[in-house]
Amino acid sequence: MAEPALALPPPQTRRAEDDLLALLMATRDLTLDLAAPLEPEDMVAQAMEEASPTKWHLAHTTWFFETFVLAPFLPAYRLFDPAFGYCFNSYYEAAGARQPRPKRGLLTRPTLDRVLGYRRHVDDALQTLLEAGAPQEARRRIELGVHHEQQHQELLLTDILALFAANPLRPAYRPARPRLAGRAPEPMRWLSFAGGVTPIGHGGTGFRFDNEAPRHEALIAPFRLADRPVANAEWLEFIADGGYRTATLWLSDGWDRAQREGWRAPAYWERRDGEWLAMTLEGLAPLAPDAPVAHVGFYEADAFARWAGKRLPTEFEWEAAAALAPVAGNLLASGALRPLAAAEPLRRRPRQMFGDVWEWTASAHLPYPGYEPPPGAIGEYNAKFMCDQHVLRGGSCLTPPGHIRPSYRNFLYARQRWQCSGLRLAAEAR
Ligand SMILES: [Fe+2]
């Protein structure tokens, strides 16, 4: 007979410490669940400089808690292994020297078993700290560590996709699920926004990253926004019309990059026997014409918008429009693991603002007026990346539950294509 389920105390009697512990452990477990379909060999290799091995993600997220929570706040804590700081520090200068990023795939040691032991060691210590009544700053950092690990959960999946796409066997992360036959997308609809002085940035009491604040006012001119992201069928028209061969559509840096790297389609697309296929977490699959295009970089998104006679929205336009949309959609919890076609059009509201694909914006990742990075090493989390990167909004089909919000600012270099990134068109008001 099965053990009876443990009865949780009713919500009103649960302490905040219990809630944070439950959130922490659920997050730590989800990371292991996401790694579970992989073989040990899959977890060691590194597809490219920007991607990291799964084993490294498992260890680095653990190192984050050990370094920024346990070492400073749990007096009896002993490092699991003093050598791990060098192996699993990502980019924190304040935390010391580290394994060069392009060489993370060379870390065949420590073994996966030892990394899993590291996770258990740190999880036990975090539980001890929370149950003993962690100070406010430790609790704040544990919450940051949770959201940091959620970011790495999405990276774990996109990095595995990059790895499997580079493998001639085109392995599948999981068996393919039945798919509906692809259809042509219904026409894009356009929504008009009056603009004006608009509040931008995080205004609530829940978690936010530092780059979402301070909340401030931005002046937005009247604009129009497409009610859904650009679909694969529309991208095929761009290709057929010579989009990748027409220099005048492209920014100079983008054109140079496209020529150097031989771009002819979004990342992971390949043509076999006259049919376009895309590498997905379910292996090679036919393109769904009505699903949002994914794995395009800013350069391509910008060129497409120019070809379409439109432009990319600013992040402020995007955030103003997102106020009309519920924070819900095809996120990781849906289990689809790929962008899906839009549902029926909504009356005067945009669709798919959250989930499916991160949407490139025209905005640079810059500090908001009055922004101050947190003191110490945590200040390196976002602040030092406020140069030459573009903001993406809205999350994707790989974004974990509870991780996205209207003010969330993801950021990538214009050339980067391995994230689940697409675009939505904007235009001036008529
Ligand atoms: Fe990290």
Brief summary of the model shown:
This protein is α+β, with helices and mostly antiparallel strands and 430 residues long. Helix content is 31%, strand content 12%. The chain has two domains: 16-165; 190-428, Alpha-Beta Complex (paralog of FGE (formylglycine-generating enzyme)).
Can you offer a commentary on this structure?
With 430 residues, this protein is an alpha+beta fold. The protein has 2 domains: 16-165; 190-428, paralog of FGE (formylglycine-generating enzyme). It contains 9 helices and 12 strands. It has helices at 16-35, 54-73, 84-88, 112-131, 136-165, 232-240, 252-261, 298-307, 315-322, and strands at 190-193, 196-200, 216-220, 223-226, 269-272, 275-280, 283-286, 358-364, 390-393, 410-412, 421-422, 426-428. The strands form 4 sheets. A 4-stranded mixed β-sheet has the order 10-9-8-11. Strand 6 (275-280) and strand 7 form a beta hairpin. The longest helix is centred in the middle third of the chain and has 30 residues, at 136-165. The N and C termini lie far apart (68 Å). Mean pLDDT is 95; it is low at 1-12. It binds fe (ii) ion.
Widest sheet, order of strands: 10-9-8-11
Q: What oligomerization state is this entry in?
A: single chain
CATH class of the largest domain: Alpha Beta
Main beta sheet: strand number and arrangement? 4 strands, mixed
Give the number of domains.
Answer: 2
Class per helix and strand makeup: alpha+beta
The proportion of strand residues reads 5-15%
Molecules bound to protein: fe (ii) ion
Order of helices and strands: HHHHHEEEEHHEEEHHEEEEE
Percent helix, as a range, is 25-40%
- CATH architecture verdict of the largest domain: Alpha-Beta Complex
Count of DSSP helices?
9
Note the overall shape: globular
Number of strands: 12
Write the CATH fold name of the largest domain: paralog of FGE (formylglycine-generating enzyme)
Distance between the termini: 68 Å
Query: What radius of gyration results from the CA coordinates?
Result: 22 Å
Write the CATH homologous superfamily of the largest domain.
paralog of FGE (formylglycine-generating enzyme)
